[in-house]
Amino acid sequence: MQNAAEYLDKTRSAAALLFDGIDTYLAFLRQHSATFITSYTSEADCNNQFDAWRIESHSKIQAAHDAQKQYLGERFAQATLCGAILQLAAKAIECYSENTQIPQDWVPFIKPNSRPVPFCTGKLVRGVPLGLIVYAGRNQHTHFEDQNLREPNVEVFRRLAMNHGFGNADEKSVVDPAFHLDTESITSFAHNITALIAWRSLDAYETDMRELLGI
Asked: CA-to-CA distance for 47 and 55, rounded, in angstroms?
């Protein structure tokens, strides 16, 4: 393949199938949902309405709980599809990014002319260039058994976990567990990464990749 545009074109059908697969898991949750919505004049009124809704919606609530359990059981399978999307994106950046600059705040973590340099581009998400998010997300998923990721991977996840915009910004102990590498319940962060950067459709993915690669 001669250029980034051709790469995206030649891998489009594969990316489309991956996004369809990811949506299949999410659709299962969407079709089994139970949400209590009401207006009330007092706390007692709200409690009475909730109790009535809970009795009336018992079967829907149970179905939603069962769906959540089944979804959790398939979480790594879904992450595998998300990891494949990150791999497609990472290979495109690796082969076709023309970026040679390291942002000043990343100089302590990235050496000149090193492998991560082409990834130091793209829109900022939680203060991290999109390319670096793809780089770290792909690496963590590929090496999920490795407890000692190298920089700048660790710093990417640290910033994603800290720069969430909720709570007291000065409270350094407040982290987003969805991107905290010490969250034991998460094996692969690929699903969380693609959700954060809003890659839930082929169009969203290609729009960001074209902007990042300048095509």
From this structure: 12
Spatial separation of the C-alpha atoms in residues 75 and 178, rounded to whole Å:
13
Residues 193 and 82 sit within 8 Å (Cβ to Cβ): yes
Contact in structure between 215 and 5 (CB atoms under 8 Å): yes
Tell me the backbone φ, ψ of residue 129, rounded to 5 degrees: -55, 140
Q: What is the pTM of this model?
A: 0.80
- Express each pLDDT in 75-111 by its tens digit: 778 899 999 999 999 999 999 999 999 999 999 999 9
Strands 124-125 and 128-129: antiparallel
Q: For residue 59, what are its two tokens?
A: 């079967």
Q: Residue 110 and residue 153: Cα distance in Å, rounded?
A: 10
CB neighbour class for 163 (10 Å; exposed up to 12, middle 13-18, buried from 19): middle
Contact partners, residue 74, CB within 8 Å, separation at least 6: 25
